[in-house]
Amino acid sequence: MKIVTIVWILLAVLCGGYGILIRAIGSGTGFFLVWIALAVIFVGCSAAAQAGLWGIMPQFLRRVTLVLLCLILVLFTGIGGCIGSKMNTEGKPGLDYIIVLGAQIYERGPSAVLRFRLDKAVEYLNENPQTKCIVSGGKGSNEPCSEAEGMKKYLIRQGIPEERILKEEKSTTTAENIQYSKKFIKSKESVGIVTNNFHMFRALQIAKRQGLEDPSGIAAESTALYLPNNVLREILAEIKYLIF
Fold first, then answer.
1. Which of 198, 228, 233, 172 lies closest to 15 in space, CA to CA?
2. Is beta strand 191-196 parallel, antiparallel or unpaired with respect to 216-220?
3. Cα Rg for the chain, rounded, in angstroms?
4. Which domain does 29 fall in, by range?
5. What is the pTM of this model?
6. Are strands 105-106 and 109-110 parallel, antiparallel or unpaired?
7. pLDDT at site 74
8. What pLDDT does 28 receive?
C-alpha cells in the first residue's frame, strides 16, 4: 500500500501545484479550481489507501468502482485522442472565407490565446490573397470593445486590408460565432475555422452541426504551459456538449 499511497500523494501535489500556478499567472477563469478539486480527491484516495479501506470494501462495491474508473479513463482518453487528432490541421488553400473565433480582448489588445489565432489568420491571408476574413466575437462585460472590433484593428495593423475583413459582433459562444458568421457566406462557398489547436476538434464539430459544409480547420498554436489546463477544460466541455 505504500507505493499506492505515494502515487496518490504525487498526483495530489502535481494537480494542486499546477492549479496554484495557473491561478498565480492569471488564466482568466476559475478553472484552476478543478485542479485543486482533483488534488483534494487524490489526497482522499491516499488516505483511503493508507487506512486499507480498499481491502475491507465489499467485493461488489470494488467491482463497481473499478468499472467506473475504467469508463472514465476510456472516456477521457478517447476524447483526448480526438482533440489531439485535430491539433495540427493546416486548412485547405484558396478558401473563400476564414472565420476567426473570438477570445478575450484587453485594453492593451488581444489576449495571448487570441493573438495566436490572429497571427495564424494573418499567415493564411497573406498566403491566400483572395480569401476574406470574418472576425467573430461580441463584447463581454470586462472588455473595452467587441472582440471582433479588437481583432479587426489587430489585423489591419498587421497589414491586412480593411476591405478583406468582415465583423460579426453579437456572438458570445463558439456556436454563436459560427451561427452569426454564416450570414456572410453563400451556399457552396468554402470556409475555414481559425482557432487554437486544443479547441479545434470541438469547433469543427460545432461548425458541422451549424450547417457549414466541409469546414476546414486552421489550427493556431497555444501556450505550452496552459495546454494541460486547456485540454482538460476541452474534454469536460466536449462531455457537456455530447450530453446537452
1. 228
2. parallel
3. 21
4. 1-56
5. 0.91
6. antiparallel
7. 96
8. 63
